[in-house]
Fold this protein.
Amino acid sequence: MSLRVLNPNAEVLNKSAALHMNINAAKGLQDVLKTNLGPKGTIKMLVGGAGDIKLTKDGNTLLKEMQIQNPTAIMIARTAVAQDDTSGDGTTSTVLFIGELMKQAERCIDEGTHPRFLVDGFDVAKRATLEFLEKFKTPVIMGDEPDREILKMIARTTLRTKLYEGLADQLTDIVVNAVLCIRKPDEPIDLFMVEIMHMRHKFDVDTRLVEGLVLDHGSRHPDMKRRAENCYILTCNVSLEYEKSEINAGFFYSSADQREKMVSAERRQVDERVKRIIELKNKVCAGSDKNFVVINQKGIDPPSLDLLSRAGIIALRRAKRRNMERLVLACGGEAVNSVDDLTEDCLGWAGLVYEHVLGEEKYTFVENVKNPRSCTILIKGPNDHTIAQIKDAVRDGLRSVKNTVEDEAVVLGAGAFEVAAKKHLIDNVKKTVKGRAQLGVEAFAEALLVIPKTLAENSGLDTQDVIVSLQNEHDRGLVVGLNHHSGEPIDPQMEGIFDNYSVKRQIINSGYVFILAC
């Protein structure tokens, strides 16, 4: 009661009530997200305080956008979001698994089991499940030439949980090709080198991969070319505009002639930089049909644009900082900060550069590059809701392919791993545990089945019939998963349904760690 003295408004719960409050929070969040899971999951509509609408079935987006009040539910949401930050997927599965662990724990506690015994059993079951996962995973060899078919299967499995099948299958090739485009042997894959650009234009099936770069602006001079082939690309971070001095300065003149000389002196430094660029262009393009493009991170003023235009140079100013490194990786050459020592080695190459005008927006495409190490996924759609859904799906697809390349392993999907792991825990692990901790192992095993159960429920199938059917096949020594169309057992390997190894591992760890916190 000392807490009451310090704060009369404090809410005090005894041990049992606090535990049940935590369990109810987990169950409530599970109920909200469970209809998201799998290819048959439903899309949620989120309405913000200002009336803005967001349509999504991505668990990570939902958890970030929802206004959650309960502290336990907030912890679960943060755990699941951390799962997405680490592995790129598995947000909904993490929430479902934690919720089911709490549900199973509540059943045992109501029957008189002390939470300490359950935690001991969960610990044994968690370690045994991770060991089983190591044996259950399917190794994939990722050398200089990765197994493209496996990567397509893993990307397709992920994308089909976010989008309808036709679009998911189309995006599969785009996602795999994008990751393989930026992949360098013996180096981590940097997904920031894949630019995700969107245009509110045409339909979702018009989404495509550009092996090059798409810039969301165009040239600022009316006389510059709008299309050029066989282009040298100069990527630079050089000011090509008159800049005021950093201190307060002025000059005085007594005649118009003096004024003109002072104005020309001000421009001289900028004009010299422009002339050096023009000299390089004349040197490399002389006597050929080649063109020259300047993409500058800093500004280019109208007089400089006019000089470049007269020389037949396409110039883009104020390019985003993040695109400068991508340009070099896509086109080659190097980014220069000065025009004093310009050489041909500084230049990149693109077979085609053109400007696309969409309403009031301008886009510049840099395509047909020789050896791209950066690329752009150009997402198209008729409205912002469609574009946002595709963006979320593409990001998850990219992460799933990246995980597979780095893990060099995949796990059979469609609920096959969960059913097999449950059988292993009950048949082999439970016997090795003494006392009431066996109840914890059994509860953990039952909680694993939440994934195939939810897949069946979201597909409109009878959950009990599906689980019994899957377990019967596993008892016969067959590793099978769920066909969400018919409800019949299928071989996930033959159907090409795979999950990420690192995602499964993280889900198992996250569930146990959260239970310890409660």
In short: The CA atoms of residues 45 and 55 lie 5 Å apart.
